[in-house]
Design a protein that fits this description.
278 residues; alpha/beta; Rossmann fold; 7 strands; 17% strand; globular; S-AdoMet-dep_MeTrfase_Alr7345; transferase; methyltransferase activity; methyltransferase
């Protein structure tokens, strides 16, 4: 058999072509940067207090993991005072549609009512920034958006609230109904210790990951992907005041404050579910 000889020059050229091909492949695989989303996150309309939480909440990484695009129809569940909405609404203003699915108004629940009023005032005061925010209400029987219209539904640290009111199954069913076939449900939630039995009322604020996945699958969703974007291994999840012991709530006040500030915000699961196409 005759050995095939390759000259050093040809070998160098061949290796160069292979390297270029590898770089091109990696460039194709790398996700495109979303400058519009970065601008919304960096905007000076966001308070220093809200921006300070980016190191824990990772808005850019979280939203890109969920596959957000500026031309989507997006629903945010229980936006509270609008921490995420002040990113989502400007981002979607020109090309997309943004629904804020709020808690029902309840004057007897002062914290929720204050958040609702603060959110509505925020949107009212800056229409040029937020555009048309479509406000709906998440109830057992209502729609958070027209059925089959949403590309993406996101819910941030709300599942324990659904569990506390016994409406977790209805909430997942409502989110499923709003999504298009192939649409995405993005979930971020305080993650419980899997060795601890799940409190069905979610009293500590922590929910076990398997429990969340089971709820979503029961509603018809398929788990597409998990991420550790919002993980915090310092969180021991065994506090007297539950997750609210940690920042930003710091329910114990000055008691061991430095300790809890050093831990940071809670350990969180980040789950991407898909509504089956058929």
């Amino acid at each position: 058999m005759t050995a095939i000889r390759t000259s050093p020059t040809r070998l160098i050229l061949l290796l160069g072509f292979l390297a270029l091909g590898s770089l091109a492949t990696r460039a194709e695989e790398a996700p495109a940067q979303d400058d519009r989303l970065k601008e919304a996150i960096a905007g000076d309309h966001r308070s220093e207090e809200n921006r300070a939480r980016d190191i824990y909440r990772h808005p850019y990484e979280t939203l890109t993991f969920f596959g957000i695009r500026p031309d989507m129809t997006v629903v945010e569940i229980y936006p509270g005072r609008g921490w995420y909405s002040e990113i989502l609404a400007p981002y979607l203003k020109s090309s997309g549609t943004f629904y804020a699915a709020q808690r029902p108004s309840d004057p007897s629940y002062a914290p929720g009512q204050r958040s609702l009023e603060a959110f509505n005032q925020k949107v009212k005061d800056a229409p040029e920034l937020y555009g048309e925010v479509k406000r709906t209400t998440l109830t057992k029987d209502g729609d958070i958006a027209p059925a089959g219209s949403a590309d993406l539904v996101v819910t941030f640290r709300n599942l324990h609230s659904f569990m506390g009111s016994g409406t977790e199954n209805e909430a997942f069913a409502t989110m499923f109904k709003a999504l298009k076939p192939g649409g995405v449900l993005g979930v971020v939630q305080h993650r419980g210790d899997p060795k601890v039995e799940q409190d069905p009322k979610g009293g500590s604020g922590y929910v076990n990951e398997d429990y969340v996945i089971a709820l979503a699958k029961k509603a018809g969703f398929e788990l597409a992907e998990k991420s550790e974007i919002n993980a915090n291994p310092k969180d021991t999840k065994d506090y007297a005041k539950g997750v609210w012991t940690l920042p930003p709530s710091l329910r114990l006040g000055d008691e061991d404050r430095d300790k809890y500030v050093a831990i940071g915000e809670s350990d969180r699961m980040t789950l991407k579910f898909v509504k089956p196409a058929s």
